[in-house]
Specification:
30% of the residues lie in helices and 25% in strands. The termini are far apart. The longest helix has 22 residues, at 25-46. It contains 7 helices and 17 strands. A hairpin with a 6-residue loop joins strand 3 (87-92) and strand 4. Helix 2 runs antiparallel to helix 3 (68-84). The protein has 336 residues and is of the alpha+beta class.
Length: 336
């Protein structure tokens, strides 16, 4: 039995001590996110018994039907982040417009988040999760904040992570100094470190993509999947296909086991399907910090400049060699 568990709160403090000039504000903010994740983890586990399954009868800005738990998770994170006193702007998948925090609760950080990714899977018990990214305002302390503080490349994020709610609740987090993984210990009520230095394998033998869209893919994506099935780059042994349909679950597996996760642009969604600010950027940040790579197919994911808070982009992320193979095919076949 472990007698000296390193909790999420303690780990965040150690990161603060390593950063010269740190004043503890990001520490407070990350702890607030941790509290929100614990609440949502509990709500997901109790959803069937508490009458929180099913549709809420509304839709979000993307036109997607909202589940009851979507709305619960959204309110939990908004309240926790506002109460932390560290945020000036919040951007959530569930609301059309950014939320500007007023005094006395205003701080200097912008948090972009998907409160419950994969929520279409809730009713059948498949893993779902929360994704978040954090920026620091361009002019901290000025009291003047605008969309210019939000619509920035992912390279300017100061922290990102996700929490996956499944058989266990896992949190993966980065502050730009590698990736650490935590598991929620229900007896302690705390996230305890279980993966102190996550490193994604440079090559994998698992590919993750929705093959139901295969008819709409570009030639490069089709070629990559065909080569995976043939085992061309794996000594003749075919890759395994694993696709949950919940980005958090698919990326979590990819981080731990290697391989590639793909959600390409296609004929139905020429700009891609995943949202740049609160899906693409946080996951790309995590994967790069773990030694992997993330791309649109032609350029680095984190270098995208968003044109709107709910803008979309294609993504291929995972083991470095797998992602570079996609880029090679895109170049050879002239795919954008």
């Amino acid at each position: 039995m472990q007698t000296d568990p390193l909790t999420l709160s303690a780990w965040i403090l150690t990161q603060q001590h390593k950063s010269q000039g740190a004043r503890g504000r990001l520490t407070v903010l990350l702890n607030a996110i941790g509290v929100g994740c614990k609440f949502v983890s509990s709500a997901v586990r109790r959803a069937g018994l508490a009458g929180m399954m099913g549709m809420a009868g509304s839709s979000n800005v993307q036109g997607e039907d909202q589940k009851k738990l979507d709305l619960v998770a959204n309110e939990v994170f908004k309240n926790s982040l506002r109460r932390s006193g560290q945020c000036c702007i919040l951007v959530t998948e569930e609301e059309d417009d950014p939320i500007f925090i007023e005094e006395p609760n205003r701080g200097d950080y912008i948090v972009v988040f998907d409160p419950l990714d994969g929520s279409s899977n809730i009713d059948c018990g498949v893993s779902v999760g929360t994704i978040f990214g954090i920026y620091k305002a361009k002019n901290p302390g000025s009291g003047k904040y605008s969309l210019e503080d939000v619509l920035r490349p992912g390279t300017e994020m100061v922290a990102a992570g996700y929490c996956m709610y499944g058989s266990m609740s896992y949190m993966m987090i980065t502050t730009g100094k590698g990736v650490a993984g935590f598991t929620l210990d229900p007896t302690l009520g705390e996230f305890v470190i279980t993966h102190p230095n996550v490193q994604i394998p440079t090559k994998g033998n698992i590919y993750s993509i929705n093959e139901g869209n295969a008819a709409n893919w570009d030639p490069a994506t089709k070629k990559y999947v065909e080569e995976c099935k043939a085992g061309t780059y794996n000594k003749g042994k075919p890759y395994s296909l694993r696709y949950v349909g919940s980005m958090v679950a698919d990326v979590h597996r990819t981080l731990l086991y290697g391989g590639i996760f793909c959600y390409p642009a296609d004929k139905k969604s020429p700009k891609g399907k995943l949202r740049v600010l609160y899906e693409v950027f946080p996951m790309a940040f995590l994967v790069e910090q773990a030694g992997g790579k993330s791309t649109t197919g032609t350029s680095r994911s984190l270098e995208i400049v968003p044109d709107s808070i709910h803008g979309r982009a294609p993504i291929y992320l995972g083991s470095k060699e797998e992602v570079e193979l996609i880029e090679k095919f895109k170049k050879e076949l002239g795919c954008q």
